Amino acid sequence: MQRSLSIWIVPPPDLRWRLESFVARRGEGPAFTPHVTLVGDLRSDPAETLAAVHGVASTVLPLSIRFEGIETGTSFFRSVFLRVQPTAELLRAHRASCEALGVTPNQDFDPHLSLAYGHVSTAELAVLQRQVHRREIPGSRFRADALTVAHAASTVPIAKWVEIETIAPGGSS
User: Fold this and answer.
1) In this predicted model, what pLDDT tens digit does every residue of 128-142 receive, in sequence order?
2) Which residue has the higher pLDDT, 126 or 97?
3) d(Cα 130, Cα 118) in Å, to the nearest integer?
4) What is the number of structural domains in the chain?
């Protein structure tokens, strides 16, 4: 049975916790797991996707993820986000994941980690930007040692997004 799936890079627990404090109930959308989408909006069989991601994880991980800065946008899923440096290894991971999943790589792949979905007021944005800079998030890095398969897509209500499995080279984590 096909489901709407995405492949995420989720920060390690210490950074994930700090980022969750920014994500919690900002903008119009509900809270969500902070993540960098490697491949999104797949319609795929979960078992086939998990098998493909197990294979990809062993060839593309670990990845170094670096936040370049906080930015705003006009789309619902990119109202406030941390720009992620599009390194050669991250772009290679995107292409390898797409190839393993049988989808065309996104030529406009623009890695980021959203901090809020939907409209964010100017006052709330200013507070969020100060907090992010105070915690020295822009310019920071993390090592991604796993990929997460999630039941998540633009067609799935955010409140129903679920992490299915986190996969590290050599097995699940």
Assistant:
1) 888 888 888 878 899
2) 97
3) 19
4) 1
